[in-house]
């Protein structure tokens, strides 16, 4: 049975910095390969679009959300980055006070270490967030378990299949970038989000077509 | 003396990679890829919510196609 576009949307709430890049790559890879649509603040590069309105729209349009709290730590000014807890609160507000449909929204909360929900989020105590230990393979495992079914309801492959596929993509990326007369560093999900996402989607579609052809 | 030094330098110098040269993939890479991605058979990859300009999108599609055509050629050859 075909599903509406909104049911495929996964809102990502995570840091967009160089340290987080390996985890971000693994995160969007897993979502796209599961047949879902990545939605995050990077998709809108229109500076005229007010940030809060953008977040509200993305959360409103997404039935799924993934919130990585692992980098909500003290910065140089001795204050943590409040954006991620704020966006988590916004998504929780939609889930608990939104429409009947939004009340069925699913959310995954990620932290770095096991059983370590940050003190500033003690209100969520008892919900036992998932930990990734800063390891992209762990993050792939947790996100694929969270999604666990394709948008049409069939079961997704096991996490090891994702980890193997991710390694293949990472290996292929420099060669494909060269064919585009770019270097691999320029195909960056943080600085060139739209380009990276299309790379990912086209690569997956082509390899899956090739995989189907070989069995035909 | 001077010539000998020049010759030695020339002999030990590695050829520079051609700018834009594509790193070679092993001949069985396509089969290996097919095997890995076979587990995901039946999944429909969603169109990205946002895309780059049509020109860049065309170039990306061509680069991906060329990469797989190259793998295919290595596999058959």
Structural key phrases:
heterodimer, A: alpha/beta, Rossmann fold, 5-stranded parallel sheet, 10% strand, B: 77 residues, disordered N terminus
Order of helices and strands of chain A: EHEHEHEEHHH
Rg of chain A, Å, rounded:
18 Å
Number of beta strands of chain B: 0
The whole-angstrom Rg of chain B is 21 Å
Strand content of chain B: under 5%
Major interchain interface with per-chain residue totals: A-B, 50 and 40 residues
Mean pLDDT of chain A: 87
What fraction, in percent, of the residue positions of chain B are helical? 55-70%
Average pLDDT taken over every residue of chain B: 74
Overall outline of chain B? flat
Strand content of chain A: 5-15%
Specify the structural class of chain B: mainly alpha
Enumerate how many helices of chain B there are, as a single number. Answer: 3
CATH architecture of chain A: 3-Layer(aba) Sandwich
Strand count of chain A: 5
Q: Give the CA-based shape of chain A.
A: globular
Tell me the distance between the termini of chain B: 47 Å
**Which structural category do the helix and sheet elements of chain A fall into?**
alpha/beta
CATH topology of chain A: Rossmann fold
Q: What's the gist of this structure?
A:
By secondary structure, chain A is α/β, with parallel strands linked by helices. Chain A has helices at 21-33, 51-60, 83-97, 136-147, 159-179, 193-215; strands at residues 9-13, 37-39, 64-68, 106-111, 130-131.
Can you tell me about this structure?
Chain A is α/β, with parallel strands linked by helices. Chain A has one domain (5-157): Rossmann fold (3-Layer(aba) Sandwich). Chain A contains 6 helices and 5 strands, in the order E-H-E-H-E-H-E-E-H-H-H. Chain A has helices at residues 21-33, 51-60, 83-97, 136-147, 159-179, 193-215, and strands at residues 9-13, 37-39, 64-68, 106-111, 130-131. Chain A has a 5-stranded parallel beta sheet, sandwiched between helices. In chain A, strand 1, helix 1 and strand 2 (37-39) form a beta-alpha-beta unit. In chain A, helix 2 (51-60) packs across helix 3 and helix 4 (136-147) crosses helix 5. With 77 residues, chain B is mostly helical. Chain B has a domain at 52-77. Helices cover 56% and strands 0% of the residues of chain B. Chain B contains 3 helices and no strands. The longest helix of chain B is centred in the C-terminal third of the chain and has 23 residues, at 54-76. Residues 1-21 of chain B have low confidence and may be disordered. Classes of the chains: A alpha/beta (216), B mainly alpha (77). Chains A and B meet through strand 2, helix 5 and helix 6 of A and helix 2 and helix 3 of B.
């Amino acid at each position: 049975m075909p599903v509406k576009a909104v049911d495929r949307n996964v809102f990502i709430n995570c840091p967009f910095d160089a340290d987080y890049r390996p985890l971000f790559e693994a995160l969007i890879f897993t979502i796209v390969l599961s047949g879902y649509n990545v939605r995050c603040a990077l998709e809108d590069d229109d500076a005229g679009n007010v940030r809060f309105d953008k977040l509200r729209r993305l959360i409103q349009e997404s039935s799924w959300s993934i919130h990585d709290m692992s980098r909500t730590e003290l910065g140089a000014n001795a204050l943590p980055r409040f954006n991620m807890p704020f966006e988590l609160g916004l998504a929780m507000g939609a889930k608990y006070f939104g429409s009947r449909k939004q009340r069925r929204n699913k959310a995954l909360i990620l932290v770095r270490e096991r059983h370590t929900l940050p003190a500033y989020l003690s209100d969520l105590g008892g919900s036992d967030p998932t930990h990734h230990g800063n390891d992209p393979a762990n993050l792939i495992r947790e996100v694929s378990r969270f999604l666990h079914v394709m948008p049409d309801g069939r079961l997704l492959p096991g996490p090891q299949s994702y980890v193997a596929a991710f390694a293949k993509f990472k290996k292929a990326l420099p060669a494909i970038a060269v064919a585009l007369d770019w270097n691999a560093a320029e195909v960056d999900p943080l600085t060139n989000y739209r380009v990276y996402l299309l790379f990912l989607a086209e690569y997956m579609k082509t390899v899956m077509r090739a995989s189907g052809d070989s069995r035909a | 003396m001077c010539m000998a030094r020049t010759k030695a330098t020339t002999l030990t110098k590695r050829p520079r990679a051609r700018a834009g040269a594509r790193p070679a993939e092993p001949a069985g890479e396509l089969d290996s890829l097919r095997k890995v991605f076979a587990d995901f058979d039946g999944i429909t990859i969603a169109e990205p919510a946002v895309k780059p300009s049509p020109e860049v999108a065309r170039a990306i599609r061509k680069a991906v196609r060329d990469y797989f055509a190259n793998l295919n050629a290595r596999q058959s050859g």
